[in-house]
Every structure is written in structure tokens, then in C-alpha cells.
Amino acid sequence: MFYYKEELINPIVPDQPDPAAARVLQEILGGHYGEMRTMMQFFFQSSNFRGKDTQFRDLIRGIFLEEIAHVELVQNTINQLLNGSGESNAPGDSGADHAPLDETVLHANPHHYIIGAQASLPVDAAGNPWNGSWVYSHGNLIGDLLDNLILESTGVLQKSRIYEMSSNKTFRETLAFLIVRDNAHQNAYAKALETLGVNWGKLFPVPNYDINKYPECRKYVELGYHNVQFNFRLDQTRIGEIFSGQTPSRNGGDLAVVEPPQGFPVPLMPEMPNEHSPGTKDMNF
Amino acid sequence: MFYYKEELINPIVPDQPDPAAARVLQEILGGHYGEMRTMMQFFFQSSNFRGKDTQFRDLIRGIFLEEIAHVELVQNTINQLLNGSGESNAPGDSGADHAPLDETVLHANPHHYIIGAQASLPVDAAGNPWNGSWVYSHGNLIGDLLDNLILESTGVLQKSRIYEMSSNKTFRETLAFLIVRDNAHQNAYAKALETLGVNWGKLFPVPNYDINKYPECRKYVELGYHNVQFNFRLDQTRIGEIFSGQTPSRNGGDLAVVEPPQGFPVPLMPEMPNEHSPGTKDMNF
Amino acid sequence: MFYYKEELINPIVPDQPDPAAARVLQEILGGHYGEMRTMMQFFFQSSNFRGKDTQFRDLIRGIFLEEIAHVELVQNTINQLLNGSGESNAPGDSGADHAPLDETVLHANPHHYIIGAQASLPVDAAGNPWNGSWVYSHGNLIGDLLDNLILESTGVLQKSRIYEMSSNKTFRETLAFLIVRDNAHQNAYAKALETLGVNWGKLFPVPNYDINKYPECRKYVELGYHNVQFNFRLDQTRIGEIFSGQTPSRNGGDLAVVEPPQGFPVPLMPEMPNEHSPGTKDMNF
Amino acid sequence: MFYYKEELINPIVPDQPDPAAARVLQEILGGHYGEMRTMMQFFFQSSNFRGKDTQFRDLIRGIFLEEIAHVELVQNTINQLLNGSGESNAPGDSGADHAPLDETVLHANPHHYIIGAQASLPVDAAGNPWNGSWVYSHGNLIGDLLDNLILESTGVLQKSRIYEMSSNKTFRETLAFLIVRDNAHQNAYAKALETLGVNWGKLFPVPNYDINKYPECRKYVELGYHNVQFNFRLDQTRIGEIFSGQTPSRNGGDLAVVEPPQGFPVPLMPEMPNEHSPGTKDMNF
Amino acid sequence: MFYYKEELINPIVPDQPDPAAARVLQEILGGHYGEMRTMMQFFFQSSNFRGKDTQFRDLIRGIFLEEIAHVELVQNTINQLLNGSGESNAPGDSGADHAPLDETVLHANPHHYIIGAQASLPVDAAGNPWNGSWVYSHGNLIGDLLDNLILESTGVLQKSRIYEMSSNKTFRETLAFLIVRDNAHQNAYAKALETLGVNWGKLFPVPNYDINKYPECRKYVELGYHNVQFNFRLDQTRIGEIFSGQTPSRNGGDLAVVEPPQGFPVPLMPEMPNEHSPGTKDMNF
Amino acid sequence: MFYYKEELINPIVPDQPDPAAARVLQEILGGHYGEMRTMMQFFFQSSNFRGKDTQFRDLIRGIFLEEIAHVELVQNTINQLLNGSGESNAPGDSGADHAPLDETVLHANPHHYIIGAQASLPVDAAGNPWNGSWVYSHGNLIGDLLDNLILESTGVLQKSRIYEMSSNKTFRETLAFLIVRDNAHQNAYAKALETLGVNWGKLFPVPNYDINKYPECRKYVELGYHNVQFNFRLDQTRIGEIFSGQTPSRNGGDLAVVEPPQGFPVPLMPEMPNEHSPGTKDMNF
């Protein structure tokens, strides 16, 4: 069973709305290699695990738990990027010759303003809905670990590419945090395969990202976030049997299971009358 | 952030494998009105909530937390129904004129034996993958509550129909538990709409299921599970501002927020060499 | 605007339930080349028509109108094949060792018993949902006519193949009627291309079906249904400028626009308490 | 069977082409909560209806008939918004350094210019094709009515949001008419549930739209279009047993079944040689 | 079995990057009527062919072989249009207030920069993935030929429409070559139906494109590319039994099977460090 | 450009029809990890390759070429399993009380008899169409190689699981050949990663299949097919720079690039009048 504290795993840094950034950030939420995929893939692999070597199951499940918090973080980041983006600034904007959203939606995913009230959706950067066929849970441990490894590597890859698409601070801070965490999860799966006999040489991290290009990453690396796994279990776990000792990455350091970060506030979004959200203004309750 | 204890929300009752039952039970996991949908829909609605009346957000989020445990329960139930279903009983079964799975897959979802190692998948009873376009999170509170209400009602409806498709005890126990819990969640959303001024008369429960037709439900009703909401929050929640007082159902009783059930063991599945799962027999670790 | 009389275009012939037949007949309703496709394709082509040669638009629209009635006919046929198929005959069937639907769903589309209350769905014979990408409305008249021609030819082809899958009379009568009507619509589009200069030689009908293999077709051919187009317009139409004169088929005869068939009763389906349908038994209204 | 008069249910108001508006208006045609969905959902529910309380079936079917005309209206509106949008104004536009569509398609759905000849498509505002899995026809009357109610409420919600995306008159007039009609259909399903015992208090209309924000709506409200249902039946119907008496909306008034609106001309679209539509210029016929 | 020489079937003409052109050109690669569809459709029809009249199978297979080269050509054209489009020109572009891709992706398919490293994808112009349900291989020869004919006609139609969307030379040259080749394949299927008795009159080519509007086409027509079929077989083929004699097109000329074009270089794409492609800079190999 | 000789890469071993086997074998053709995926994935990776280390591109392209032949082999195998499966043996089978296909389709994919004339389709074992979103071509070489490695490993895994589903010889021979070839391709990608510094230890082959359980594999292993790559290039290739030296598999041996196998006849399928295939019996040609 699953328990919750209303705290985000990383802060939402304030900046201006940026609907074009929100559109591309959807890839990280609902894309083929996004956080919904990692969350569901590790969930299915955890529940479908076979055999007694449950240290692997506990590793996968431990990362699954963090991925739920990642989904929550990206939802909130997208919401912040959209929030207020479609509001009219001037009086009379809904007059005959101008509409408050006409410019806004040109470079946005229009569904952000039609289906949602300027809020996140389970779709990718091109507007395609999340699809269950993407989940890989084949029951062969090596297959599952290799697929998880490539999934986390692609996570870093795509996030570093999306990072280039806006200099918005809300956007980049979340991406930077997730790049470093994906790196940690890459280390986790690479280490698990090391216990099965693989020596990775200097292959990882993949991609070989230069921390100087992503300055927001630096503080997370300095906190050691690329080499730790947060423990969200309220009971015992064997995760430390795998996630310990020397990192498989050429960047060095030792792996360690640690407490989750202090939590950060979940932003409360204002009412948005133009979107009829929540739309209960005149109710008596 | 999300925390976890390795305990199921309800026991897995032992019985024989039943792959045809596993096939139809997939609807409850990955179908249009299944637990993955409720989980993701309430997740998005929680994160996308607007305005200060956070008692509604806390209600939706509280149910979301339970839905994660429902997904876990259905995954484990499907696994139990599949587990061992494709194993050969007789010597020489993989000989020239017989294959151990030939009869098994005739009435099964073949993907249970190809993609998974006799394990659950994010698909529905017809084998279609789960689809993100099904999630409804429109930001209008009344719209969201009404849609959640019909979603939980359809949950009971489909589960009572699927119940007729096998008398397997593993299958029926999980269905019976979920029928009663969907009834509770139906009460939750109906009650929320009551606070906005609706009087439901004698409309609920929908469908108007007769507890005598689903004998496994009785003990859950006697425990009052149709009128309680389990609280998975580790911090404060305003859920009780809505989920309290008289039930909106004609079956009567008072609503109450309570502690989650005692946990039940997550079954450990045996190795399955024919499916190469986990397939690490000869590794040295 | 569209008007309606509650009458089917052809009778529903009574026979036993046959859920396996209902499963494959779904292809004719929600498949890539089924009646929903023809209905929507001709609807879009009618509305999107360009230019003054509206005799072509009126031809396409005229067939569109009939296709709505075909959708209704196939929905009702599937319902008849499903109706009662999952009802228990013996007392105590929902007891511990037997479930009323366990055998029924083995060769059925389980969604017929889960999503619908033993009723038709917008899906194909493999359970895939109808998809808008199948509609062809490209605005080039020759392209549209050729595509409509192949669509109607495939209609006959698939119906004659499905005909072999059950000897159920309800099933075969509807298929036989639609085979002959698809033949008429094939003639319509072939004739339209004749007016643009094509001489088809002896190519049609495609496929070259032998009426003796589909004895139910005979009466419809004797009625001349392969060479007429029913007129559902309440105002003027130019359809006769194309649909007249010698048939383009080697089977001969003259094309004519005629009144629709006398209508046939739309069956009223009984309540089905096991499926909670309609499920209002205890309501006071 | 279905009959037709070539008349639109509401006029197409002339204005300039606006391909960005056409793109977002596709949501109302082929989106999850668009007119194709309402049309098909009410069609399936009508044909799949069980039991003797056919006043409900006649209500659903009556609204289905109007939805076909809504699909036709939205197709024609999109066509008007696209028509001529991609034509070159200047001589020599297809020369070496400029192409007539290069600017046009930047903010358009490119499929409007590739698949269709500047014409409507069965897709949503993000370009995803219409999907049959969206149709809800579960056979439980209360479930179906609740789902129809939320579907019509979402119709108003999305249309009022899309209204903000362009001040084009063609676009806004169609949206305004449909907002008021969706309101009427919301009243229809809310009233049907009233007959089953629900008292809605002051919940409806959902969303609680302010008519002053959508000035084009006013005349339709003054005509009473929010409280009437047009009758497209050529035979008897029991719809009036439900759709009569006091409206369930707090805006007040009495419900009444009335004749359809006088019809309005279906625009005839000009040839578009650049799109090869219809492309029969040199044919002899 | 299939053999390969690293040569393109037509040259890639150099010009500036044009990501908006790349986006729409995806239709020709991964769209409903694109080259992946023709390739796979003719592949399935070839392998599934029934009967002894293998001259038809050899015709279909011969065109299939060319379509593989068309897919390769369009992939390379898209790559050329994307290559370098997202590179920063100015120093310090990844600084705090500007990102190198922010303007670039506004009118692009963002997946070109997220999933691929500025490279082609199996999707259409609206970003929808290629779908196997589009393939038509029904086994009825006339049906298959008619469908292939309309497929090739739509190929010309869509390419001529896309041609208007950019004056980029890389883009237009590939489109022009493919327009003429689709015309040849249209002739092939029209001729095959002629051998079965059809006389097309002056119907083809469809659409009736004016070569003066697509000046890049002229040289290919002068080379006779609209009336030849390239032979990629290393063994015997009966294709010439159909593809010979007078063209079915009103443009005249004789059909002939000829050697493939001389090959053209496959461009080698530079490393793209910003996209981490290939991302092996620091490896020792 | 691509050239062809009409020869299969492995023989089709004769046996009885087996439509249930054909249904599950579709996974190997059109499934998420089937031959269409490997073919298209390696095609896109080859064309989208960046940088000068073209030995990797030539390796990927070399395997792509073989995958086209694999697709052809599986299409022909499925056809053989279906061929004649639906034919009636007894006289009068299409009489009033029996249909020749009624039993046949119960455990088959009905589309094999409706869409195709008892022939292969681009779908998976559950009937879902092939989907372009499955293709991984991300442009990061390590990412691509790791994904290809897991793709080939999953190929062996799924084929060994499907092998258990029928003892039909046609079915098993093709699976056995492909298991050994997937093993070779697994070796290829594992070796490529070795050149980038990885030491796999004893991890491969994945899964660790026991050749004694798949006796048909033995002869292919004895031919060394698990350690060779067939060369389908008509020009130079750098593939041998990677595919040479010691295998990365613990089963040992040296890798070598060799000539393709001698070709085997492509079966000619008989006419099937009941399916109207090819359906030209009465034509004069």
C-alpha cells in the first residue's frame, strides 16, 4: 500500500508562463520515454517479479516509488508554465476584433487550453496520448534490467535536448533535477548488471553530458544526487545489497541509499474563471 | 512524495490457475474504466486542482492513493490466475507431437505468455493497450466530480458483469472487494456533489447490485467498507469535511475516514524456467 | 438536417443467439471497411465537396444516407445474436462451481459482456476500436470515386467471407442483404467513373460472387436491389443524372432511383437483470 | 431509416479565412468530446436500449438526430474557415523563392492542406484521429444518462474555451449556437435523471457560463433554444414524456419539444485548382 | 532475399535547413499514403499472392523494391532539411536568456529534436505514428490493384500539395522525382487493370497535374521516368508481360522496364554534439 | 538501392495447417518486438546515422538487410499455417446448418479470414496493428546499440516462448532458425558495445536458452549460424571491423561475415475460390 505526504521532491522555481515550453515538456510526462512510462514499467516489473533474488525487485520498486513523485513534479512544472499564459491583460479583450487566446495557442498544444484548464495532460510533445504498449515487463531479469538502463539513459538524453528549447527557469530547474536523478537510476541498473558479471568500462554516463552546459545540474551533483537512491519504504528493503559500493559511472563515487529530500510546497493554483475552473463561484458551500 | 509498505490491501485467495479469467480481469486493470484509469485520472485531477476549496482536492487525492493499491491488487490477482497455467504436467510434453502451451493459449490472451512471463499487462480484456486519451481532468470541479462518479459506477457495473465469467475464488474475491470499494468511492463523489446542492433521492448505488448475488461481498459490507474511506496520508487532510455524515446511498449508514486495512502478504512468484523468468539460474551472484 | 422513422431497412430474421457470429460481424460495423467507415467517409465527402457538378455530391450523399440505416441494421443484428447468449438456463448457476458466462465468453468478444449489455460496439472483429484515420476524403473527385469503389467492393468481399463463419439465419440474412446493396453502391461509383470516360469491360462485380453460394441473396437480386438506389431525400437531388441507364456490371440491367423499402420493426430488447440493464427496476417513475 | 433535406441547422456567417481557428475547431468535430462522439454515442445507446421505458430511448435518439446535423454544421464551418486560406494573392507565388502555402501551414493542421483540399477531417485539435473507444454505451440507463450529462456539459465547457481562441465571426457564431444547444441537451439528460428521483438544486448549467461573455449566444437564448428540443421524427415519439415541464436549470423556464429551425443554405465551395479539387476540369461530361 | 548498394535513387540537392518543410514532408514518409505504406502494402501483397498469374505478383513486387529506395530517399531528404537547423550561430546561446532551439521548434515537429537527433521518424505530418491497419492486402487481385492505383494517385496528389509548402530546393527536388515515379506506378496498376479488360479513356493521370507548375518534374519526364519501371531483380521476372506497350495515360508513350538509375551518394551527416549524437567523442576505439 | 532474388533465407517445412499457431506467430511479424520492428528500426538508424565511424552504421545496415528477408520468411510461414485451414472437406458444407469456417475461426485471428485471404497481416498476436511509435532511432550510438541489443534478446525470448505453443513443424522450424539468427544479432550488438569498452562477462546469450529444448535449433548452431553475419551488400562494407574476433557470448567461437545461405523456394499459394482470391477466374487474359 502507498502513503503520501503533500510535498514535492524538488522546488518549483518561479518564472514567467511559457506555453511553448509546456508543450515540449509534456514529452517528459506522457512521452514514450517519460516519467509515466518509467513509473508504470517499474510498477509492473515489481509486481510481476519471479524468484527469490528480491534485492532486484526491491531496487526496481524503490525507483518506481520515486517515479511517482517525478510524475507529480512534472505535472506541477507544466502547470506553472501554463498558469496565466492565456489570461487577457487588457480590458475588452473578448471584444469583436481580438480574443485573449488567439496568439497564445499558436505555439502551444491547444489541448492545454481546451481539455485542461491550462494544466498538464497524459500526452507527449506531439500531442499523442500515452500508450500502454510502451511498457516493457517481460519477466526475464536481464532483459528487464537492460531495458530499464536504456530507458533511464534515454531519459537523460531527451531531457538534455529539451533543455535547449527554453531558458525559462521553472522549466530548466525541473529538467536539471531530473537529469541528475535519471543518472542515478542509470547507475542503479548498470550496477545491478554489474552484479551479474558485466564490466561497463567507461561507457556511462550515457549520454556523456557536460555539467557545464547545464549549470542548474551542478548543485544536485554537488549534493551527490547522481549517486544516491532515496528510500521511500516504510518497511525493510534489500535495495542496499545492490545500490552500494563503487558507482559504475566513470565519474566515480560511491552509491548510497539515503532519506528522501526534504519536501517542497505543492503550489496552489489560482481560480481561472475564463476556463471555468473550478467553476463553483456561485455555489453555496 | 509517496511511501510504501509491502502489503496488499486485500488477501489473494488461493485457487487453481484460470487463464481465461485472467484475460477478462485485465479489463479491471488496463481497460477504459479500470484501475489504471482511476489511478491516473485522480492523479491528474489532484495535481491540476485550482482554487482554495482544497477539501475536494484532498478527497480526490485520497481516493487516488487507494487506487494505486488497487492496481497492485489486480496485478497480483492476474498473476495468481496465470501462475503455473502453462506448465506441463506430463513428461515429454515438449516432444514432437505436443506443446505445453498449445491448449492453454486457445482461450487466453497470448500476450500473457509471450510478452509477460505469465504475468499482468497494461491492456484490457480484448488486448488493447491502455490509452491516455481516456483520462478526464478538465479542471471544472463539477465536471470532474460527475465524471468520477460515473467512472466509479461503471467500475461496479463492469466488475459485477465480469464476476459471472468464472467461479474461481482468487478471481471473485478480488472482484468482490473492489465492488464494495468502488461503491464507497461512488458514495464519496456523490457526497461531494451533495455539498454543492444535489439531492440524489434513491438513485444510488448504481448499478443497484444485490449483495446476495455476490456472496463474497457480504463480509466487506459487514465491515462497513462501502461507507469508509481509508486514509493513506502521512500529513493532514481535509477529506473528512466531505466524507462524513449520512451516506448518499439509499442503503444508509454514515461515512467515515478510517485507517487502511491491515496489510496482506504480496505473493512471491516462483521461477518459471520455461518462460526464462527470471532466467539467471546459471549466474554467479 | 436529418429526419427519422423508426423502421429498419431490412427485417431481422429470428434464430438462436450466436456470440461467435456476433464477434465476427463486428467487422461489418466497426471495421476498416465496415458500415461506420462508409457512413463517415461519404458524410465527409458530401460536406467537403467542391465545384458545381453536384450530381456527384448528390450521389455520394444519397449513399451516405443509406449507410446510416446500414449501421442501424448491423447494430440490431449483432444485438439479436448476443441477446440471451449469456443467460443462465439452470437454477443455481451462479453457485460456487459454475458461472453463467464462463463458457459463453470463451469464443466471444468479452467486451460484448463487459462494456455493453450484450450489445453492439464501435469495434472490429479483432476488438480494435474504429479509427478516424481510415476515412478518405481528399477532395479530388476521381480519387474519391475510385476509393469509394474499392471500399464497396471490399464490402462485398468481406461480407461473403464472413458469411462462411456461421449458418445462423439472423447473421446470414443481414449479410446477404448488405452484399446486394454493396453491389448496387459499387455499380453507383463505377457508373460515376463511366461518366468520366472509363469503360469497365467485364470487371464488375468485384468480387465475382456466385449467387448460388449465397442463397439468401437471391430474393434481393430478384427484387432488383443490386441495380437500384433508394432515395432518402425529402427535397430535390441530381442523383439520377448519374444513377440511370445501363449498369456497369456484366450482370446487366438498368439502374434506377427508387423509393426506400417499406420499413421493418426495430426489435425491442428485453431487460437483462444480470447485466444491470437498464437497471431501473426499483425506481418509481 | 434516415431522411435528409439539404439545409443546415444554423447559418454560416461569412468572415475571413482563419486556418488556426479551423485547427482548434476540429476538437468540436473529431475530439473526445466533440460532435462525432455525441452522434455515435447516442446512436449506439438508441440501438442498444433495453426494456419498455422507451421514453428514455426516444429522448436519446431525438438528440442523436440533431447531432448528425451538428456534425454537418461543424464540417461546413471548418470548411469556411479554410476555404481560400492557402490561395496565393500575388502573381508568381509559386516561383523559386516563395510558396503559396509556406506561411499558411505554420499555425495550421497541415493535414487540412495535404489530406483534405482545405476541408474538414475526422480528427481533434491536436491532429489525433477520432477513436471508437471513446463511445460509452453500457446499457445501464442511469450510467448512460449520467455519462451523457457530463458529455454535454463538457461540450459547453470546451466550446466556451475555444471561443476565446479567435474573434472570427464564422467561428464564433457556430460555437455560440452549439453552446446553447449543448445547454439544452444538458437540460434533457438532467431532466431525465430528475424523473428517476434526483433533485439537482442549483448545479446546472455546467459550466456556469455568463451569457454576456458570449454575445452571439444571446439571440439563441432569446429564442429559447436552451430549453427546447427539436423534433426530427417523421413518426411518433415519447420524448415529450421527459422533455417537458420545468427546466432543471437554475436559469428557469419550461422545456418544450418544437419543430426544427428553418433550414439554412449549405455553402457550395468553389473549385480549388491548386489542391486538384475536384480536378475534373478537362473531363468531358 | 534482399541485396543493397549504398546509393540513393535520386540526388539530394543542397539548400538551407527548413524544419517546417521537414515536418510536412514526414507525411510522405510515415503518413497514411506515404512511402512506408506503399512499401509495406506491396510487400504483403507480394508474399500473400495466390494463383499462377505471377506476372501480377512480379509487377507488385517490382514496385515494392523501388519503394524501399523511396523510403531511404525521403529519410535522407528530411535529414538534410533538419541538419543544422537547431544549431546555435552565436556565442553564448545557451546562456540564461536564450536557448538555441527555442525559435526552431516553434514550427517544427518537436520530436525531430527530442526523439531523433534532427533526423527522420516513422510518423506523419501531424506527428501520428505509422499504423499497420492502413495496409491493404486482401488477396482479391482486382481489389488489390484498384487499391494500389488509388494509393499511387493519392501519392501524386499529396506530393503536389506539399510542394506548395516550401520553395526549398532539397524539398522540391525529392518531391518532383517522386511525383513522376508515382505517376509511373499509377500507370503500372492502371495497365494491369487494362489487361483485365478496363479501358480508362482519358482518366489518368490522377490528379491531372500541370508539369509547368512543378518545374523540377520536367527533367524526369524528359528522361521518360513517368513511363518506365526500374528493375531491381537479380533473377527473372515476368513484370514485362504487363508493363509494356502503350501507356494507359492520356499523356502517351510506351511503357518499358529499364535498369535502375545510376546511384547517387548517401550523404554522411556530421556529428551533432548538442544532440549527443553519436555521443562517443571520448571513447577509445 | 535494394535488389532482390526470389529466394527465401530458410526453407518452409511442410506440415498441416494450424490457424492457432498462425495467430501467435503474428507476434514475430507485427508485434512490438517482431521482425517488422527490427527491420524498420535498423532502417531508420542506418539512414539517420551521424559521424565518421561508419563501421557501426554498416553493422546496423547489414542486419537491417537480413531483417527484410526475415519478414518475408515469417509472412510465408504464416501463410503456410493458414493455407487450406478454412476449406471445407465435405460436400454441402455451405448448406443451411453448417458453415466451412465456423469451427476454424474460433481460435484464430478472424482477420486472417476476413481482411486477408488466409494470409499474413501487419498485426501482433492479439490483433493490434503494428505501430511506428515502437521504433527507437535516437541518434545516440550507445543508446541505439543498447536498445538493439535488448530488442534482439527479446526476439529470442519471445520466440522461445511461442515455440511452446504448437508442435507444428512449419511453425517450429522457422522459429528455430530465427532464434539462432537473433542470437547472432545479439552477438553483433554486444560486440559493438565491447569495442566501446564493455566486458559482458558471462551475461549472454539472453535468455540462456538450452539448445536441447529446441531440437530444431541444433543444425543451425552446428552450421555456426549463431556466430556469423550474412553479407547482403553488393558493394564494400566496414561491418567486419566489428563483427570479427571472439564472440561476446559465453558459448564461445569466432564471429565471421559470410555469404548468405543458398536460397530456398518461395512457395506458390493455390487459388482459394471461397476467399475470392485472386478472383479472376472468368477474366480473359
UniProtKB/TrEMBL annotation, chains A, B, C, D, E, F:
InterPro entries, alphabetized: Ferritin-like (IPR012347), Ferritin-like_SF (IPR009078), Mn_catalase (IPR007760), Mn_catalase_dom (IPR039377)
Keyword Calcium: yes
SUPFAM superfamilies in alphabetical order: Ferritin-like (SSF47240)
Region annotation (Disordered) ranges: 266-285
Top-level taxon of origin: Bacteria
Highest classification ranks of the organism: Bacteria, Bacillati, Bacillota, Bacilli, Bacillales
Protein family per UniProt: Belongs to the manganese catalase family.
Cofactors, names only: Ca(2+); Mn(2+)
Residues bound to Ca(2+): D58, N231
Protein's name in the database: Mn-containing catalase
Cofactor binding remark: Binds 1 Ca(2+) ion per subunit.
Residues that bind Mn(2+): E35, E67, H70, E152, H185
Keywords for the protein's UniProt record, in alphabetical order: Calcium, Manganese, Metal-binding
GO function terms (MF aspect): metal ion binding
